[in-house]
Amino acid sequence: MRICFILNPTSGTNRTQDVPALLSRYATAAGADFVVWPTEYAGHAEQLARQAAADGFRVVVAVGGDGTVNEVARGLLGTPAALGVVPRGSGNGLARHLKLPLDIAGAVRRACAPTFQRIDVGYLNGRPFFCTAGLGFDAHVSKMFAKAGTRGLSTYVKVALREYRRFRPVPVQVTLQGQELFDTHCYVLAFANAAQYGNNAYIAPRADIQDGLLDVCLIDGLSLTRAVRVGVGLALGTLATSGQAVYHTSQHILVQSAAPLGFHIDGDYVEDATAFEARLEPLALEVAV
Ligand SMILES: Nc1ncnc2c1ncn2[C@@H]1O[C@H](COP(=O)(O)OP(=O)(O)OP(=O)(O)O)[C@@H](O)[C@H]1O
């Protein structure tokens, strides 16, 4: 079995590690037939992944955070190669959901001797996501986080607290499965394929990545008390039973908003829009876990 590691050299906070050397050491020890391809620019991982699949690599491993995982997975859609993950980001939502080892040695060993499964793939406004996507405050924070200059959890928390004082909910009309229509306000509207954003922040604790459905989580406003309760719910995995968020499951969701709202794909801000379509393709990606 041939394995291609696609490495984002800019991901992760530990810059002192020689990641290519570590990948080589652990993959050689596991007896793997492998190559390591570093990315040269944002978006490159998708191209490299497609190339690797065309070259016949059975497993193509994203070495990076959820942004790199999204790019590699996107490149593998419709190919016979399976996605592996060596998590190097700060959130690592998909790796955590799939219960992959979070350390390089363990993750490389797993990638070299995996079992294979298929997972669902979500799309928001035509863009594939594997973990979560959404509109509102979380997307707005991703946008501001990208501009922050530094990364990591502490910057994220700082940005989220600052933007909490500024962000206001927007009126939206939501249609589920072409029929159930309701008017509400969007503070956060999350579409969850996996249960968490990353960092064990469980936005949709009951989400099943193989059930053919997106879990839709709606938070229509966020007073200070409610923000604290939502924060606790995210951390403890109890948001779904806390009464602070409303949940639905659906394969197809349309949203019309009264004003432009930002949306994110796997934690990366994309753009603002007023019309949204979220849908799910069941079991559209093979993963090596
Ligand atoms: N060689 C490169 N140079 C610059 N940017 C890159 C390169 N390779 C990939 N990228 C971009 O870096 C972005 C961030 O990568 P990724 O999410 O993997 O790491 P991270 O930001 O450290 O992780 P996390 O999002 O979990 O904090 C990706 O969206 C990707 O497009």
UniProtKB/TrEMBL annotation:
Keyword vocabulary terms for this entry: ATP-binding, Kinase, Lipid biosynthesis, Lipid metabolism, Magnesium, Metal-binding, Nucleotide-binding, Phospholipid biosynthesis, Phospholipid metabolism, Transferase
Domain DAGKc, residue spans: 1-128
Pfam families: DAGK_cat, YegS_C
SUPFAM superfamilies according to UniProt: NAD kinase/diacylglycerol kinase-like (SSF111331)
Organism (species): Hymenobacter telluris
Cofactors required: Mg(2+)
GO cellular component, one term: plasma membrane
GO BP annotations listed: phospholipid biosynthetic process
Protein name as it appears in the record: Diacylglycerol kinase family lipid kinase
Gene Ontology molecular-function annotations: ATP binding; kinase activity; metal ion binding
PROSITE patterns: DAGK
